[in-house]
Amino acid sequence: MRHSDWWRSAVVYQIYPRSFADSDGDGIGDLRGILSHLDHIAELGVDVIWLSPIYRSPHDDNGYDIADYQDVDPSFGTLADLDELIAAVHDRGMKLVMDLVVNHTSDEHAWFEESRSGPDSPKRDWYWWRPPRPGHTGGEEGAEPTNWHSFFSGSTWEWDEASAEYYLHLFSRKQPDLNWENVEVRQAVHAMMRWWLDRGVDGFRMDVINLISKAVQPDGDLPDGVAKPGTRFGDGSPFYTCGPRNHEFLREMHDEVYADAAVLTVGEMPGVTIDEARRFTDPERREVNMVFTFEHMGVDHGPGGKWDSRPLHLPDLKLNLAAWQEGLADQGWNSLYWNNHDQPRIVSRWGDDSPEHRVASAKTLGTVLHMLRGTPYVYQGEELGMTNANLASIDEYRDIESLNHYREQVALGADPQAVLAGIAPVSRDNARTPMQWDAGPNAGFTTGEPWLPVTPNHVEVNAEIVRRDPDSVFHHYRRLHELRHTLPIVTDGRFRLLLPEHEQVFAYLRVLPGAEGVDVATGSGTTDADQVLLVVANMSSELATVRLEGLVNALAGDVLLTTHDDGAPAVGERLTLAPWESRIVLS
Ligand code: TEU
């Protein structure tokens, strides 16, 4: 492994600052709150912290709408606090990766305010301004330049009365898209990134970085998308997902900003395919180290998409993850995640969050993910086995995506209770309830009124308890991280899926070919046996029995980590697993 490839054996921990720890009692997490809990993260044995946005922002999308890339929002603290945090992270032997949100800015960013000042503004072309559709005056329904549906409901175009043009926003109307065709935009972003590297940060998590290149036509037009049934909108994604100049823009960024730095770069990429991901992450191409795929997060979506979630059919998940493992085996690199600030809690989604199975299912989900090939990401609270929020009414939700979807559907005549039932299991607020530090008031998150309700189960599910209990989810994750750090097979072994059709059990091998060499004593060639790591996991709340043909030796190896110390021994090729039991076996 080259020195600059350190991230291949690293584990990343994501902090969502708003919900992590509040030091000043305003109900919103902040940098000094993070500083006071760094030892929790260090003890977990991770290598890197990824900090979700802490920049100056009106917080229409909780900081993913940035008004100043080079300042800290007062609700989170100051630049001096951030410098202190960078130093404290480094002191503990960890690294800090910043969130880079440059597909769009806030509409309150000085660049956009200047752009908006009129068609003659020198920054007009920094964003996507377009006149109304021919034959329309503008501002009325149907006059938008394209029919694209926003990620956050409604049109992707916002009418600006003063200059009689629309601007593009793939997300909220307060998140205007930057025009990456304009070289000044790219240079301004590069300069800002260099400023952060000079400040001591160790890399970037790049928000929706595969949406920055729009398929603008030779005449300057953006095309309409295929109509979405039941709405007046179309699907614009083919015209902005992995667009024509996406690779060029990332190569340019690499060469201009971090060619010589041993940084971690991860591109968040909704809609990315395996083939595209291989191109983005092939080191020869000098773009990014790894990408976040969304494919495995979509395997439980029904025909209605995200808001129409279904129980998991395990073979679908296995086949999807296996395809990514195999697709990026020779070139490129995977990132691995179950959770982040946009996804519901995995123990509630694909585990079993009942008191009986919550801990075992959280551990087994961790095992299955962390023994894959790639760089794992742990989202705050995942190491506690935190569950979904179970918010009671729409008034409790804060997430703009959930709220806009609710309003749009209800306006279209849908039954409000049915819409709420669709939102509850998948809303991003599930991930955003305050971190559960202890059993005290507000889970020790704040002394004030938390911005989002604390989950009542914090009395049993909290950091204080799991750090004390050697059999907890926390210590299981810590051991998973140790395995990654001590066994090269976890980083380098080839992946082979077993039992693809099995509906309860997720089983796979990692294989490191035996070293070939010459026996010094005899002079003849030798081949050590392959090293094999077997992962076998019951992903259900019932007993499961499997037959692992030809794997008697693998089954009889050293059990490195298990959820059930009193597990039944393998009998030949047959193994019976308790509900949510998993084992990692090395032979
Ligand atoms: O998310 C991009 C994205 O496409 C989704 O995760 C998304 O927000 C939504 O849940 C899709 O249904 C990134 C950030 O992670 C997210 O928090 C931001 O809201 C978004 O970009 C805009 O910056």
From TrEMBL:
Statement: the UniProt record of this protein carries the keyword Hydrolase: yes
Entry keyword set: Hydrolase
Domain Glycosyl hydrolase family 13 catalytic, residue spans: 14-432
Ranges annotated as spanning the membrane: none
Claim: Hydrolase is one of the keywords in the record: yes
Protein name: Alpha-glucosidase
Species name: Georgenia halotolerans
